[in-house]
Amino acid sequence: MNIQELYKQKLVSPEEAIKRIKSNSEVSLACGLAAPPAILEALAQNYQNYENVRLYQAIGLLPHRYFMEEAMTGHFVKESLYNAAPDRAANAKNISTILDNTIHLSESGRFMTHWRNVSVFLGTAAPMNKWGYLSLGTSTIYEKEALKKADIVILEVNENIPFTHGDAIVHISEVDLLVENNVPMIEVPLATPNDKDKIIAQYISDLVPDGATLQLGIGGVPAAVATYLTDKKNLGVHTELLVDSYVDLWEAGVVTNLDKTLEQGKMIGCLAIGTKKLWNFIDHNPAVELRKGSFTNSVPIMAQNNKLISINMTMQADFYGQCASESLGAVQYSATGGQLDWVRGAQLSPGGKSIICFYSTAKNDKISKIVPAISDGSAITTPRADIDYVVTEYGVAHLKGKSFSERAQLMIQLAHPKFRDQLEEEAKRLRIIR
Predict the structure, then answer these.
(1) pTM of the model
(2) What are the tens digits of pLDDT across the range 69-99?
(3) Residues ≥6 apart with Cβ < 8 Å to 231
(4) Is 424 a catalytic residue?
(5) What is the spatial distance between Cα 168 and Cα 161, in angstroms, rounded to a whole number?
(6) Can you tell me the distance from the alpha carbon of 223 to that of 211, in angstroms, rounded to the nearest whole number?
(7) Residue in 246, 199, 253 with CA at minimum distance from that of residue 230
(8) Domain 195-429 carries which CATH code?
(9) Which of 125, 86, 160 is nearest to 290 (CA)?
(10) Rounded to whole angstroms, how far apart are CA atoms 26 and 148?
(11) Positive/negative CA dihedral, 403, 405, 408, 414
């Protein structure tokens, strides 16, 4: 049987595909924009045929009905490894179809293969080429490991998905069923930087040397950082998240990947979220590879890049610099994700720097994000012993190797001026500053 005949043999409707999923199954669902919309809608339409199907996913950017509607309770359970806006909305409505979980991104493949009994993998793919290979397109965080572990692999093929290289490549022989659904790719534009973002980005750009390898997160600050790096030379990319900013830097001749000491000449990531600009750039581009999260976020591996600069955001930091980046009190906002992976990996990199950035205030300057102690119940995403550089719109503090007293004084200087006296008094009361 030739490749095209094998493809046709495996091609079914979404309704036919979901018949292979049984009640009480554990399902690995592709991350981000890579979840299969037609298959998930078929599950939602036929929810009464299923009981206790558990689906594991990180960064679910789309509000699929299987976890957003109360009627799905008891039929489907979504276990979110990293909350996105739809997960937060479902949690806010107290819909019992969703549960929170939290792991380091570098461990997500192991989560699927060792810590859960995954029997089904559901994802999307770019169309098969003449050699019988499809591409998982926009996410490889845990998908390849889960796909190999699963007894049943179902892919939704979409001609609009970019064909990416690296760990995204899957042979038709590894797939049990295929569904075709040629819908437009969802576009997620970069946040528009505000004045605070631009100030913070300027501070950060001064910490980035020529020849550095970058890891940028998502949000206004990372988007702004890219605009202040246009005078740099021979930057490289080893990141978890590929966004439009990297395309801008490539087109400006700033990102060349030629000075990288690991995967030289290659732009490496494990997840792509962006617009048509990004989809066109990564499509069949041999200079871009999507690799497993266990590779991109492995501390020993990323540290092989000289001058690795990681830039991440947090929601709250205390006098010691430790960061609550995923929850405030008992309310889970996102998850652990890759922050600590990057904080540690960048500091092990020769000439590397870990940078944590955030606005000094919230609620229109009514609340200081720099506090004496992290809010009760908040998860400490990055411990104080791991903190390197901290940046707000009021400056830069290098905390590594500093005493408690020195750290507190530096953090207070990063706070909004209206809170500095109050914070200093509290630091003295706690005998941190003497």
Answers:
(1) 0.95
(2) 999 999 999 999 999 999 999 988 888 788 8
(3) none
(4) no
(5) 12
(6) 20
(7) 253
(8) 3.40.1080.20
(9) 125
(10) 14
(11) negative
**What H or E segment, with its residue span, contains residue 358?**
none
Nearest to 47 by CA among 70, 68, 66: 66
CA 343/CA 386 separation, integer angstroms: 7
Q: What is the CATH number of domain 3-180?
A: 3.40.1080.10
Query: Which of these is catalytic: 79, 107, 240, 289?
Result: 240
Question: Token pair 């889960």 is at which residue?
Answer: 146
Domain ranges of the chain: 3-180, 195-429
Nearest to 293 by CA among 38, 54, 156, 112: 112
- Examine domains 3-180 and 195-429 and report if their fold is the same: yes
The torsion angles phi and psi of 362, rounded to 5 degrees, stand at: -135, 170
For 142, the token pair is 């845990």
376-428 residue pLDDT tens:
889 999 999 999 999 999 999 999 999 999 999 999 999 999 999 999 999 99
Instruction: Report whether 134 contacts 172 (CB < 8 A).
Output: yes
Residue whose C-alpha is closest to residue 54's, from 90, 81, 17? 81
Q: Which two tokens stand for residue 121?
A: 């993998």
Tell how strand 271-272 and strand 241-242 pair up: parallel
